[in-house]
Design brief:
globular; mainly beta; Tachylectin-2, Chain A; 5-stranded antiparallel beta sheet; 4% helix
């Protein structure tokens, strides 16, 4: 049952108590990492010219602002590390990828250091590039001051339309989810995203923020959104905790329904080579694309989805979940 049937704002505890473990959950490992670097917070699996690919954030484990995005070839053999697809390096954290109206869109968060204190962030922006393939990408837009900005193709045989989920912030590390539409990706601007109405205000208790990590447009005209909710750990305010969520979004009314908890870090095998006290962090990557068919299958009132994720700011995973979705 959807958690939105509750009459009061949701807490992290209510999400945890209602969570159903994924059908399957495995770790993904990446090859070609320099010493003291880690790969995590990957994009969804996407396809370019028939090749399955995945983007990954690669950080210096001692300096999270020393970040870049690399492109890897994806395969289903979890006993074998993923190898790099190309030498292309992009200056982003938390990358994403999708296709809209036949075009490839990739993006991520560019972080600018404070020149007076390099350990501090001066500014952030979600940047996007667009092209027919990875060989002809050009800059599409830069959304200043927002992380977790995600496009979704809502086109059909009668119209061209792209949805865009944003994350306006009201203070440090806080935010809600916003939504708006444009006819084509090339009409997307910083101002359009910043003026988008918020769709999650009041759903979660104070002190909790949320973001959209990916969305899939379904045949009923609604979007399945995979995202996250987060807070500072009440037992240790130095640490953050992130949990996965799924929900359905009606773009016509901006109503949300069938909100369900997603996986957590504890659903996955233990992460090697990292202090387990680092934090309860599950950061969704996205719903797998498929080359010719939808990544979502139905099972008598359920949706079965494959999603990627980052775990504990230290590793990556991929899970299969069965979601109960209202008609």
């Amino acid at each position: 049952m959807s958690l939105l049937t509750q009459t009061e704002a949701l807490s992290i505890e209510s999400l945890i108590d209602s969570k159903v473990a994924p059908i399957d959950a495995k770790l993904i490992e990446f090859a070609d990492l320099p010493p003291d670097y880690i790969a995590y917070n990957p994009s969804k699996v996407f396809y370019v010219k028939g090749q399955a690919l995945i983007l990954s954030r690669v950080d210096n484990r001692y300096d999270e602002l020393d970040s870049r995005t690399w492109i890897y070839k994806y395969h289903e053999d979890y006993d074998r590390k993923l190898s790099r697809f190309s030498d292309l390096t992009l200056p982003w954290q938390d990358p994403f990828a999708t296709h809209v109206q036949g075009k490839l869109i990739i993006g991520g968060v560019r972080v600018t250091r404070n020149p007076k204190n390099p350990s501090e962030v001066q500014s952030i922006a979600t940047e996007m590039m667009i092209g027919d393939s990875l060989d002809d990408l050009e800059m599409l837009c830069s959304i200043e001051g927002q992380k977790d900005v995600r496009p979704v193709d809502m086109s059909n045989e009668y119209r061209k339309l792209m949805g865009i989920y944003g994350r306006p912030q009201t203070g440090h590390a806080t935010g809600d989810i916003s939504f708006t539409t444009v006819e084509t990706p090339y009409l997307l601007t910083n101002d359009i995203v910043k003026q988008a109405p918020v769709i999650t205000r009041g759903i979660f208790k104070d002190g909790i923020w949320c973001g959209a990590n990916d969305a899939k447009h379904l045949s009923n005209g609604h979007n399945l959104v995979v995202g996250h909710v987060a807070r500072y750990n009440p037992n240790d305010p130095r640490l953050k905790e992130y949990h996965g969520i799924y929900f359905m979004h009606d773009p016509e009314t901006n109503s949300i329904y069938s909100l369900q908890p997603g996986p957590s870090k504890t659903d996955f095998p233990p992460i090697r080579d990292r202090d387990p006290s680092f934090g309860e962090i599950y950061f969704a990557g996205g719903i797998d694309e498929e080359p010719d068919i939808t990544a979502i299958s139905r099972d008598i009132g359920h949706l079965i989805v494959k999603t990627t994720c980052g775990l504990g700011d230290a590793a990556s995973g991929r899970s299969v979940s069965k979601l109960l979705v209202a008609a």
